[in-house]
Amino acid sequence: MEMERVSKWVCIIVIIFMSMKAFLEIQATGSDDASVPDITLVQSAVPSGAVCLDGSAPAYQFGKGRGKGSKNWLVHLEGGQWCETKEKCTKRATTNVGSSHFMEKMGFSGILSNSRADNPSFYNWNRVYVRYCDGACFTGNVKKVIQVKDHPHVKKLHFRGARVFDAVMDHLLAQGMANASNALLSGCSAGGLAAILHCDKFRALFLPSTRVKCLSDAGYFLHMKDAAGGYQFAKTFLRLANLHKSAKNLPVSCTSKMKPPGLVRVYFNIELMCYASFISSN
Description:
Elements: H1 2-29, E1 39-41, E2 59-63, E3 72-77, H2 86-92, E4 126-130, E5 146-147, E6 156-157, H3 161-174, E7 182-188, H4 190-197, H5 199-203, E8 211-217, H6 232-244, H7 252-255, H8 267-281
Parallel strand pairs: 3-4, 3-7, 7-8
Antiparallel strand pairs: 1-2, 2-4, 5-6
């Protein structure tokens, strides 16, 4: 009898402990939803050719805002280097940064976290993680589909990053982003460079009354000699712009200031112009 009474108290104590633990976790995150946001495939983008390198649909993950943050939107562009040659893009097309077929759900942390303690400024905003699958900072727009030979899985390449950006933004606007009070475009590394290059375009999506800002995390690449004494980044960006035909999709506010007008030799030149404008406006 005594053992039965002790067992009941142990069960009660365990239940109370687990309940308190769950309550504290909810308080820490500011939400009772600890799940990783699902991947949304923008299938409606495919007919217009807004596709990843392998022709698959573009994708994003979404964490819904709540309370006072429900009308605010944070759109974060995923990073992940570049592919500046056909060979590198072919390899990339069989990975999570070249095809939505290989993407896995990414946990939201840092600026995307729903924890008030970890992310006090944006924890209750609508948070979007735009997946990177074009290999050129969402700037390519080559109409022709590139044929690939002698590869077991990849038969075609699509350089359509600019279309992907536009298609995903259109999808988000239809989901309520058009009515945003505040909107922030951010990105890290290659995504940070993309945030600079697409800042003007992002601003143009909203009403004048919407407060719009852009944030680039580690997205500015200095034009200086590397450890080997060369300019590898400059060569990479030049090949990238040529392969993906990126020049025509770079912001006119930057290219118009270059000499001769509109000439884009390497990303460093365009980025320097954009970065100066980016800093002055943000």
